[in-house]
Amino acid sequence: MDKIAQFVQKSNCNATTVAVFGAIGAAVVAFKALSFFKVLVDVFFRSGINVKKYGAGRGGWAVITGASDGIGKEFAFQLASKKLNIVLISRTESKLKTIAEELEQKYNVETKVYAMDFTKGADQDYQALQHLLAPIEVTVLVNNVGTNHEIPTPFEQETDKIIKDIVEVNINAAMRMTKIVVPQMVARKNGLIINLGSFAGLVPTPFLSVYSGSKAFLSSWSQAIGAELAPKGVQVQNVNTYFVVSAMSKIRRATMLIPMPKPYVRSVLGQIGIAGGASTPYTSTPFYSHAIVNWLIDNVLTRGFWVKQNYNIQTDIRKRALRKREREAAAAKSQ
Hints:
Membrane topology: Single-pass membrane protein
CATH topology: Rossmann fold
Binding site for substrate: 198
Number of helices: 10
Strand order of the largest sheet: 3-2-1-4-5-6-7
Number of domains: 1
Family: Belongs to the short-chain dehydrogenases/reductases (SDR) family.
Subcellular location: Endoplasmic reticulum membrane
CATH superfamily: NAD(P)-binding Rossmann-like Domain
GO cellular component, one term: endoplasmic reticulum membrane
């Protein structure tokens, strides 16, 4: 009888253990399901803060870096369509003047342009920008300018110039531009800072180590200053971006995962203050397919798995890029 009692007691204990772990498992699954449902609600049904809050139609100005092409140019057009005046900053003055003229004619807004090479990090450029922006009411800053490795490259083989350029453009430019405009935003207790981040800052990317590190910095820095500035009325939003058709991405054809700049920028401006697929503070992944991928990265498999995936992807891209260089070199030699 004692053995039967022990068996029954042990069976009851095992059943209780299974029930407890089953309940925990069900709770985890339910939590994951709810978090995924929230992503879908964010990207398909919720509307973010209206840019009218940031002076649209009331004399406010948006400052956009890297404004002559791609995402930056699209930000200029969409913000101008919402009646924000526009400051365009990029390398090529002729392109900036052409865009400025089109914005003025199409949307009846004011524009200013300033041509500079952000890789130089010249103090005189930032001093000139400070002088240019001081008299106007800057309500929006889009830190869009960025640069990348020419091809996936092991860190020890990368050139000092490319390393310096990435740090100067992707990190220093964002900080220096923000430092120029934040004091007046804080004084008015109103402003919006959009930092163009990357999935390379979400998951470390081998062979793009400096670019990946720069975007990880941008993510962490955005969260830090976001917490500082939120009580002062300034909204900071680091935007997790997967691929978008652009000159920098070297992608020319749009897919479900790789949108054109127009729908991508529309999603960013339509979901200001909404997380979308992002799980970190002061961060947004607004484009629907990017949001779903972001959720998968955060909730499915391990971070080590995703780093290994990035390693494999970039290894393949590097091999193809090196073969292309060899073909081009051979063709040039034969001429």
